Amino acid sequence: MAEETQSKKPNTAAKPRKRFVGSKSAAPSKSGSPPTIANQIPDQILSDPLLNQAIKQLPANYSFEIHKTIHHVRKNNPNMVALQMPEGLQMFACTIADIIERFTNALTVIMGDVTYGACCVDDYAAVALGCDMLVHYGHSCLVPIDQTTIKTLYIFVEIGIDSSHLAETIRLNFPNDRPTFRKQLLEYEDGDARIPAGQKIGKIRHLQIEGPSGEGEAEPPAPTELTRFALVSTIQFVAALQRLKEDLTSPYSDAGTSTHVLLDGAQSDTLIADASKSSSGHRLWTGVYEATIPRSKPLSPGEILGCTAPLLGDTDALIYLGDGRFHLESIMIANPSVPAFRYDPYSKKITRELYNHEEMRTIRDDAVQKARKSIATFSTSDSKGTVTPTDENPIWGIILGTLGRQGSFKQMQAITHQLSTSTTAIPYIPILLSELSPAKLALFNPHISTFIQTSCPRLSIDWGYAFDKPLLSPYETAVAVGRAKGWMVEGKEGRERAKGGRYPMDFYEAGSPWAVARTKSTYL
């Protein structure tokens, strides 16, 4: 197979590429010639039997877009291609590297460093390794290709799921009648905030069912208000979200049978017994729902990141499609009053997800207040931020994340300008770190009283409590110096949530101060 593949490689040495110098006029195209698209994959790649056979070594429900990758590698003609992917996909890295080397003239390098998200695209390291092209898997193009220092190709790796099971699971558990949904699920939760693990959610084991009426039976009345869902996911499942929206906004039609699941903890044996009593064979809500796919630009519709999620309007619940809670928690923090449900496409379970908003707000507010107290120790006479750190006169540390593109130098410049122009100038020192840990930052004690990190807001939200000194995000820093509205205020009985106060999750949202700073080096 290797010999056959090698024979198909173009002999670039015998036929060197010609340099295009342009011309004053162009010859007219032949009549009847079909228009061509620059990035259209040639048929010789799509129909290559050896390539298609090699692709079969990868899981069929994972879209690694091998044809597209081969086309771009051949078009760009790099000598060395770097492959970067999250840990969950690295089991396929060697296979993909082998395919690229067999069907192109390029060599490959697998970048094994941890990749947490779209912000970790590491074009700098790829260049340092001598690569002239980077293929980044599993994340959307958060860093535009015109801003990377190397030719970059993003492969989202869309994953195929059982869409029918997803839609029917939602119809099985959630009424499409808004008042009924709120009464049977949400109001019950308000009265029973603590539900033991394994206990069913709601007063009844499964909900009232709509089914096709028998002869002589009146059609059930249409709901006066439809249940409103917001559908979100990671980039791998955004295509499935569109299918789900179509399924929920259209009346249910029984196109076959499938295995249903109740909300995690419900008893499915009773479901099966009762389902047989239904005239349709399925105890489902068959009406339509009001489903929307929100968007936080520049992300794709329905896509959320761990640090960026859209604000939702009048919504009864949000449904997150994906495994794990990291991304889901982002939209839960941004919309604390909207109930959240998670459908795991691997385990095929739908679960009610909760988040301790009060605890998070309190912990983060404590960090901000502690940072504010340290400002009082700084002299107002120093406006250059060049104070020598001592035990009695500690300064602030600004951490520029160096893991991929997590840290932005322009973001750091915006922060330093903010500290220098504060009512009380705050002395600081820049620190470069790839990954943060309590043990690492403890080495700077006691000369630094507050740390600001530009890597990821979730480091502060999720792990800030574990650090000895306040670890602030850019947003929390703006709150600490009085440049942004906080989520807590001083009340009669101590700190309390401000009216309308919320903790924003807009780190990469277009137009947010933090997104502007990454391009203009200022929050103004």
Structural summary, described in words:
GO terms for molecular function: 2-(3-amino-3-carboxypropyl)histidine synthase activity; 4 iron, 4 sulfur cluster binding; metal ion binding. The protein folds into 3 domains: 2-11 and 38-158, Rossmann fold (3-Layer(aba) Sandwich); 163-194 and 224-353, 3-Layer(aba) Sandwich (Rossmann fold); 357-520, Rossmann fold. The chain is 30% helix and 15% strand. It has 17 helices and 17 strands. The protein has helices at 2-7, 43-46, 49-55, 66-76, 93-103, 123-128, 163-173, 178-191, 238-248, 268-275, 326-334, 357-375, 409-420, 438-442, 457-463, 474-480, 513-520, and strands at 62-63, 80-84, 107-111, 133-137, 151-155, 158-159, 228-233, 290-292, 317-321, 340-344, 349-353, 395-401, 428-433, 448-453, 471-472, 488-491, 494-497. Strands 8-7-9-10-11 form a 5-stranded mixed sheet, with helices on both faces. The chain has a 4-stranded parallel sheet with strand order 3-2-4-5. Helix 5 (93-103) links the parallel strand 2 and strand 3. Helix 12 packs across helix 16 (474-480). The radius of gyration is 28 Å and the shape is flat.
Reported by name, the CATH topology of the largest domain is Rossmann fold
Which structural category fits the helices and strands?
Answer: alpha/beta
The CATH class of the largest domain turns out to be: Alpha Beta
Please indicate the percent range of residues in DSSP E strands (runs of 2 or more). 5-15%
- Unreliable stretches covering 5 or more consecutive residues: 1-29, 203-219, 256-262, 264-281
Q: How many angstroms separate the termini?
A: 60 Å
CATH level-4 homologous superfamily of the largest domain = Diphthamide synthesis DPH1/DPH2 domain 3
Note the quaternary state here.
single chain
Region (Disordered): 1-39
EC number: 2.5.1.108
Cofactor: [4Fe-4S] cluster
Pathway: Protein modification; peptidyl-diphthamide biosynthesis
